[in-house]
Amino acid sequence: MTRGERRQKIIRMINESSAPVPAKELARLCNVSRQVIVQDMALIRESGYDIIATNRGYIMNAPYMAERVFKVSHTDDQMEDELCSIVDLGGKVVNVMVNHRVYGHMEAALGINSRKKVMGFIENIRLGKSSPLKNITSNYHYHTVEAENEEILDSIEQMLREKGYLVEDLQ
Fold first, then answer.
1. Quick one: CA dihedral 75, 130, 67, 70, positive or negative?
2. What are phi and psi of 145, to 5 degrees?
3. DSSP state, 19?
4. If DSSP codes are grouped into helix, strand and coil, which group holds residue 104?
5. 94/109 Cα distance (integer angstroms)
6. Is 101 helix (H, G, I), strand (E, B) or coil?
7. For the CA atoms of the chain, what is the radius of gyration?
8. Closest Cα to residue 8, out of 47, 56, 52?
9. Is the Cβ–Cβ distance between 153 and 91 less than 8 Å?
10. What is the DSSP string of 116-151?
């Protein structure tokens, strides 16, 4: 088992346990020393997991959400499809961002995690309450997307690529 696989196993065991998981037990199950578990926990926390050490063992304070920023481009007519496709795969569209050559970085919170919220957002745009932020940068914009795990984000990235929404940076 690699270090990465061991850390994923530790995260899974803590996440799935209804009681605190002692470092001694994690060490036994992973066939490593307790000190290795303590080192792994520091790295796991550093990567964004909110794990608390109690006197009875480790507990997950809050569920971890994987996060990725996607650079995308699409028309106004494709906006609903883009957002629905992301939430249908289990993603949450946290925000929209643009980098304007004059105004600089601009960002707006969205918090869209369901079709109902997509429809509400689209309806507000259609009613003329505002226009999409992407319109000031020739449709180019970024979305921060959260999901339960990296596999869901991989699926979202693949879908965006297949639909032609993902902007692939040429290097």
1. positive
2. -120, 130
3. S
4. strand
5. 6
6. coil
7. 20
8. 47
9. yes
10. HHHHHHHHHHHTTS---GGGGGTTEEEEEEEESSHH
**What are residue 93's phi and psi, to 5 degrees?**
-85, 105
State the DSSP code for 59: E
Say which DSSP state 167 is in. Answer: P
The candidate with the shortest Cα–Cα distance to 92, out of 152, 36, 40, 41, is 152
Structural contact between residues 53 and 10, judged by C-beta atoms closer than 8 angstroms: no
Buried b (16+ CB within 10 A) or exposed e, 28-45: eebebeeebbeebbeebe
Q: Which amino acid is at 82?
A: E
Task: Report DSSP state, residue 89.
Answer: T
Give me the half-sphere count of Cα atoms (radius 13 Å) on the Cβ side of residue 155.
15
Residue with the two structure tokens 């995308």: 72
Exposed, middle or buried, 77 (CB in 10 Å: 0-12/13-18/19+)? exposed
pTM for the complete prediction? 0.66
pLDDT tens sequence for the chain (171 residues): 889 899 999 998 998 888 999 999 999 999 999 999 999 999 998 887 889 999 999 998 866 678 999 999 999 999 999 999 999 999 999 999 999 999 999 999 999 999 999 999 999 999 988 889 999 999 999 999 999 888 999 999 999 999 999 998 754
The amino acid that residue 19 corresponds to is A
